[in-house]
Amino acid sequence: MDLNLEDKVIIISGGAKGIGGAISKGLIAEGAIPVMVDPSEKEGKELLDLAQGKALHLPIRLFSPEQSQEVIQKTLEKWGRIDGIVNNAGANDGVGLEKGTPELFTQSIANNLFHYYYLVHYALPALKVTQGAVINISSKTAVTGQGGTSGYVAAKGAQLALTREWAVELLPYQIRVNAILPAEVYTPMYESWIKSFSNPEEKLQEINQKIPLGKRMTTPEEIAAMAIFLLSEKASHITGQHLYVDGGYTHLDRSL
Ligand code: NAP
User: Fold this and answer.
1) How many Cβ atoms from other residues are within 10 Å of residue 148's Cβ?
2) Cβ neighbours around 11 below 10 Å, total
3) Residue 161 alpha carbon to ligand 1 centre in Å
4) Which whole-number Å values give the CA distances from 216 to 69, 159, 198, in the listed order?
5) Residue of 46, 55, 94, 256 with fewest CB within 10 Å of its CB?
6) Ligand 1 site, CB within 6 A
7) How far is the CA of 109 from the centre of ligand 1 (A)?
8) Per residue in 165-219, pLDDT tens?
9) Under a CB-based contact definition with an 8 Å cutoff, are residues 239 and 10 in contact?
10) Domains of the chain, first to last
């Protein structure tokens, strides 16, 4: 199947590591041009080398509107077009009701949510020209809860609501907006979370056993495959959807 992504310019926040890194890598394989907005210098350089220069790495930790504006400006200066945005950067930062403060809650939402809006807001004129696509990487925690992580989960839930809201607002421009909900994906973020337990190996096995399909984690590449399909013209009639790529973890019978 030819996805026809050659030379399409896609901005991926958190695009150098984990799920975002796998999306960038997959896009490079398709001949697309990933713009990786991610403070990770080493991984960003490795992906730039892989793309033989047909990519851009912006080592920015997104927080303020001005940073997102800068990302859009630099992308347009370098490549002249934007065909898609993958809002992916975030961190499960454990700001809960008990272990948290109003200030930390606000900061967690800013870290995990506000730049999803900022990037799409500033990219909109360019996306209208290309009839581009937007993907919001959310999380199963938005629908299941996790406990002890109010800020992150509030942001993840809002990302799902914004997916529907933007899908409606952008219908006149043929810009499609979809969300992907991963559940358990072994990435650098996941590794540091699992290592926070006193018995990480045991905990990992316990979680694997609860994943219906194959009793294993979803790989970053499996999330990337869905993202790349949704970015492509092959997904031309899919918008406003919440897609669970999780081996059945969120919905299938727990007694399996
Ligand atoms: P990851 O391994 O930590 O990779 C994320 C990358 O994004 C890192 O390079 C990180 O840099 C960067 N980053 C973080 N905040 C950023 C910001 N504000 N601006 C720019 N870059 C930023 O995380 P991941 O597991 O791939 O998660 C990616 C997305 O998937 C997140 O939205 C997460 O909520 C979602 N998700 C993941 C899982 C899972 O099981 N892994 C499950 C559900 C949802 P630093 O390392 O320097 O912070």
Assistant:
1) 15
2) 31
3) 20
4) 39, 26, 21
5) 256
6) 13-14, 16-20, 37-40, 61-62, 88-91, 111, 137, 139, 182-185, 187-190
7) 14
8) 999 999 999 999 999 999 999 999 999 989 999 999 999 999 999 999 999 999 9
9) no
10) 9-184+220-245 (3.40.50.720)
The pair of structure tokens assigned to 249 is 């973890």
Atom nearest to 217 CA in ligand 1 = 40
